[in-house]
Amino acid sequence: MPAEARGHVRKLPSGLWQLRYYQDGKRRSGGAFPTKSEALNHYRGVVEPELRGQPIARRDLTLSELADVFLERHGKVRSLRTVRALSERLKRPLDRFGDVPLADLERMTDEVADFIAELPERWRHSVVLAFRQTLDAGIRYGYLTANPAKLAGPNQSLHRGRSAPTARSN
User: Fold this and answer.
1) pLDDT at position 28
2) Domain coordinates of the chain in residue numbers?
3) Mean pLDDT, range 41-60, rounded to an integer
4) Would you list the DSSP string of 38-74?
């Protein structure tokens, strides 16, 4: 009986953890994760079922359902205050895209870009950050293949306490 394949991780110079495993005799990389636990959880929840031929993609989930899963899992490793803040920041994206299946949402980059542009400048950065974080979790969990909030463009932060650069006249 052949040995059962197991994923392993290594710490990268960037501080992220890289998931590595073997498939068909070749070493593969499953991406980079902020923690060792997240990398191993991704292996157990996404890669290992794929290696066994089990379907894992839950592309029928809506954004609201993904947000619930993400906040529940995130709440096990983060403070209640952090989860509450994320939940508040996700209210606007969920109001707009909550009932949209993830399979459709990942093809809606244009609509997501319009949504981001319509957000009040004061809240834009934090709302988009929470939205992107949730969709990134969907990618790690194997529910999405792309993050439309990232594809929509950079998340511009509001620089507090600094005035906008002005043109100098000579």
Assistant:
1) 84
2) 8-51, 63-151
3) 71
4) HHHHHIIIIIHHHHTT-----TT-BHHHHHHHHHHHH
